């Protein structure tokens, strides 16, 4: 099995179909994926090339006539199209929301396309969970301690207390300081990122 990590043989899959390769076993019928998916060429020795599509996390045999060269450095800011960081589809700039405008007045766009972002935003928190967290929120002016970093603060004075929600089952978990809430959000708990982070730190721990 060829590992795509570390490779830079990028290709553009113009048509959205190919035959999936499941651990060396070819599917019988073709599968469909979004047209203009960007992938890594693993094998180009036949008329059908073996391509890994990160957006699908899957290898496909694709007819080389349906593949086109792509210069990944001619995409993104300042260019006409951009590769989404979730689906890895090359899309026109206007399919990415404007995030902010930088100091020079240039627009910065979100790294995920509008379709992929819809999936993120759809995981809303039910209102009963919101009401519950509002009722139990620590009182303003009281001494409070964050359950993660253990830092103490005066609520609403020198610490910002945030209601922490689990977006996957859609429920309220507890209260955290603003900093820990942002940190936890980056680790996307539902996806085991935090466990991976601990394993990574352990692996690189200096043992003496
Ligand atoms: Zn996308
Ligand atoms: Zn904290």
Query: Major beta sheet, specifics?
Result: 8 strands, antiparallel
CATH class of the largest domain: Alpha Beta
CATH topology of the largest domain: His-Me finger endonuclease fold
Binned strand content? 25-35%
Topology record:
Elements: E1 10-13, E2 17-22, E3 25-26, E4 31-32, E5 37-43, E6 48-53, E7 58-63, E8 67-68, E9 81-83, E10 90-92, E11 98-101, E12 107-109, H1 114-121, H2 127-136, E13 143-145, E14 152-154, E15 161-166, E16 171-177, H3 178-186, H4 193-203
Antiparallel strand pairs: 1-5, 1-8, 2-3, 2-4, 2-7, 5-6, 6-7, 9-10, 11-12, 13-14, 15-16
One zinc ion (ZN) binds at residues 84, 86-87, 89, 112-113, 115-116.
What brief labels describe this structure?
208 residues; alpha+beta; SH3 type barrels; Wheat Germ Agglutinin (Isolectin 2), domain 1; His-Me finger endonuclease fold; 3 domains; eight-stranded antiparallel β-sheet; two-stranded antiparallel sheet; 4 helices; 18% helix; 32% strand; binds zinc ion
Descriptive overview:
With 208 residues, this protein is of the alpha+beta class. The chain folds into three domains: 10-68, SH3 type barrels, CATH 2.30.30; 72-121, Wheat Germ Agglutinin (Isolectin 2), domain 1 (2-Layer Sandwich); 127-202, His-Me finger endonuclease fold. Helices cover 18% and strands 32% of the residues. It has helices spanning 114-121, 127-136, 178-186, 193-203, and strands at residues 10-13, 17-22, 25-26, 31-32, 37-43, 48-53, 58-63, 67-68, 81-83, 90-92, 98-101, 107-109, 143-145, 152-154, 161-166, 171-177. The strands form five sheets. Strands 1, 2, 3, 4, 5, 6, 7 and 8 form an eight-stranded antiparallel β-sheet that branches. It has a two-stranded antiparallel ribbon with strand order 9-10. The radius of gyration is 23 Å and the shape is elongated. The model has no long low-confidence stretch (mean pLDDT 90). One zinc ion binds next to α1. One zinc ion is lined by residues 84, 86-87, 89, 112-113, 115-116.
């Amino acid at each position: 099995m060829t590992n795509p990590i570390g490779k830079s043989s990028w290709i553009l899959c113009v048509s959205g179909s190919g035959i999936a390769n499941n651990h060396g076993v070819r599917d019988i019928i073709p599968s469909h994926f979004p047209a203009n998916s960007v992938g890594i060429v693993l094998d180009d020795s036949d008329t059908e090339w073996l391509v890994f599509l990160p957006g699908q996390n899957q290898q496909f045999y694709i007819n080389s006539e349906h593949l086109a060269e792509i210069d990944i450095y001619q995409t993104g800011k300042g260019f006409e199209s951009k590769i989404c960081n979730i689906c890895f589809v090359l899309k026109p700039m206007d399919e990415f929301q404007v995030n902010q405008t930088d100091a020079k007045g240039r627009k910065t766009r979100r790294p995920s396309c509008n379709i992929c972002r819809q999936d993120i935003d759809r995981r809303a928190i039910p209102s009963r969970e919101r009401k519950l967290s509002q009722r139990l929120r620590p009182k303003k002016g009281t001494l409070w301690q964050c359950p993660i970093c253990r830092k103490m603060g005066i609520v609403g004075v020198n610490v910002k207390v945030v209601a922490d929600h689990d977006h996957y089952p859609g429920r309220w978990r507890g209260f955290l300081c603003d900093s820990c809430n942002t940190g936890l959000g980056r680790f996307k708990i539902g996806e085991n990122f935090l466990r991976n982070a601990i394993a990574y730190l352990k692996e690189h721990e200096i043992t003496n």
